[in-house]
Amino acid sequence: MNTFDLEKLKSKLPVHPGILRKEEYFNSAVLIPLVLINDEYNFLFEKRAAGIRQGGEICFPGGEFDPLIDSSYKDTAIRETFEELGLEKERISIIGNLDTLIGPMGVTVDSFLGVLTLLDISLIKFDKDEVEEIFLIPVSYFLKNQPEKYHVRLEINPTDIDKNGERVDTLPVKELKLPDRYSKTWRGRKHQVLVYKTSKGIIWGITASLIYEIVNKFTS
Q1: CA distances from 88 to 82, 116, 123 (A)
Q2: In this predicted structure, what is the pLDDT of residue 113?
Q3: Across-strand partners of 57?
Q4: Mean of the pLDDT values across residues 98-115?
Q5: Are 25 and 117 in contact (CB under 8 A)?
Q6: Helix, strand, or coil here: 8?
Q7: Domain coordinates of the chain in residue numbers?
Q8: Out of 2, 51, 119, 147, which residue is the most buried by the measure of CB atoms under 10 Å away?
């Protein structure tokens, strides 16, 4: 017979709480690369190749955590940087990481700040299937220029349309005898979207949030 054992439960509680049910998210990691040029630190950015997901957008190197390859999220960030930019682990000095960012669309991002041993970015042989171009922007630019702030409204829909164009109840409200209000789309909270306008293009979304976090730590 099963009995409730409080001491057993206590022993299984996390010592360092993380993100509950994190495995249900798209878990990713990025490297925030810093390059020292003429005694000034610069962020190194990628512009994503047109033929891939979110093509043409500006980002940091990174990608999905692969538990079959990566032993940690730092491994993911370094592996993805090598795959996208061809930079070996020996050229990356990790100086720390930010808190895990949870995106509004079911993505988690673990980010690592790293200094690259690099004198000239023209020597970087990046993967042109994934990266259209790379460029530097001084950190000082973001210290001097605040991002524009916008807000979007997220919604939760208890129905979906399948491949045949038929409506599907993803949450069977009537069957579960839930309140009728949940059978209709309900509105979530507003989500802030940050946008930096630069000479290289718009930097927004998660990438902008990471920059903003670093800038706030530097100025606080």
Answers
A1: 6, 10, 13
A2: 97
A3: none
A4: 95
A5: no
A6: helix
A7: 23-143+199-219
A8: 147
For the chain, list the strands marked E by DSSP.
Answer: 26-37, 40-48, 58-59, 62-64, 92-97, 101-102, 107-116, 131-138, 148-156, 159-161, 167-169, 186-198, 201-204
- The pLDDT of residue 11 is 94
CA distance 42 to 146: 17
Identify the CA nearest to 184 among candidates 149, 217, 155: 155
Q: Per residue in 139-152, pLDDT tens?
A: 999 999 999 999 99
Look up residue 171 and give its two tokens: 């949450």
d(C-alpha 30, C-alpha 77), whole Å: 5
> pLDDT above 70 covers what percent of the chain?
100
pLDDT of 2 above 80 = no
